[in-house]
Amino acid sequence: MKRRLYCFQLKRGVSISNHTNTYTKLLADLVKVDVVIDEEDKALILLSSLPDERYEIFVLILINERTSLSYSEVTIALVISS
């Protein structure tokens, strides 16, 4: 399951809403087997799952001048921007 998390990528034709829902389900499945992932790591893995050609500027704007990120901030920003 951890491998699925770290290899998770937005697939062509999948909406951001569906992508984040799938990611959230994957995180919930990991919690069920006692895997703990830091909030900032959840956010960074989700941002890393987005293709650079479409989301590079979004990611740069989101992380610019921040000392930390939360998973909820990233998911809200993604939903609002889509």
Short description:
This protein is an all-alpha fold and about 80 residues long. About 65% of the residues lie in helices and about 0% in strands.
What topology emerges from the helices and strands here?
Layout lengths: L1 H5 L9 H17 L6 H10 L3 H12 L7 H11 L1
Describe the protein in words.
It is a single chain. The protein has helices at residues 2-6, 16-32, 39-48, 52-63, 71-81. It is mainly α and 82 residues long. The protein has one domain. Helix 3 runs parallel beside helix 5 (71-81). The mean pLDDT is 92.
User: Roughly what percent helix?
Assistant: 55-70%
Mean pLDDT: 92
- Shape, principal axes of CA atoms: globular
Query: Which percent band covers the strand fraction?
Result: under 5%
- SS element count, helices: 5
Q: From the helix content, strand content and strand pairing, which structural class follows? A: mainly alpha
Distance between the termini: 27 Å
Number of strands: 0
> pLDDT below 50 for ≥5 consecutive residues: which ranges?
none
What string, H for helix and E for strand, traces the elements in order? Answer: HHHHH
Largest β-sheet summary: none
How many separate domains make up the residues? 1
Radius of gyration: 12 Å
